[in-house]
Amino acid sequence: MLGFKAKKPQDRIRIADKKIQCLRSKRANVNRFSDPDKYWQINQKIHQNKIEIEIAKAEMSQPVKKTTNISTQVTLNKTDKSKSIHFHGHYHNNKKK
Predict the structure, then answer these.
(1) Total-model pTM
(2) Which of 42, 69, 79, 95 is most buried, judging by how many CB atoms fall within 10 Å of its CB?
(3) Phi-psi region of 69 (alpha: psi -120 to 50; beta: other; left: phi over 0)
(4) Rg of the chain, C-alpha, whole Å
């Protein structure tokens, strides 16, 4: 969500928590009534980091399943001279691109 996709859930929680602490200290220095736009922008960033923490905690309790690429190829060969049909298939598991 916030550039954490390549990180482990524990790392994402740690990074988001550190960002929340920095944002809270910035928010403490902003006057809510004199500059409400900046105040609510900081609140929105804090909220996004809290969501990232919740997502990472959910992934820790139930890890993401990694899908594999499976391809099935079937060819059908039939000629007018022959009344038989020839099937030929291949099954590739974990095929790398």
Answers:
(1) 0.59
(2) 42
(3) beta
(4) 27
What angle, rounded to 10 degrees, do the helices at 36-61 and 9-29 form? 160
Backbone angles phi, psi at 92, to 5 degrees: -115, 120
Report the 10 Å Cβ neighbour count for 75: 9
Please say whether the dihedral angle defined by the alpha carbons of residues 37, 42, 43 and 45, taken in this order, is positive or negative. Answer: positive
Read off the pLDDT of residues 40-83 as tens digits, 9 standing for 90 and up: 999 999 999 999 999 999 988 886 677 666 666 666 555 556 66
Structural element, H or E, at residue 97: none
> Could you tell me which residues come within 8 angstroms of residue 89 by beta carbon, excluding any fewer than 6 positions away?
72, 73, 74, 75
> Exposure string (b/e) for 48-66, b if CB count within 10 Å is 16 or more?
bbeebbebbeeeeeeeeee
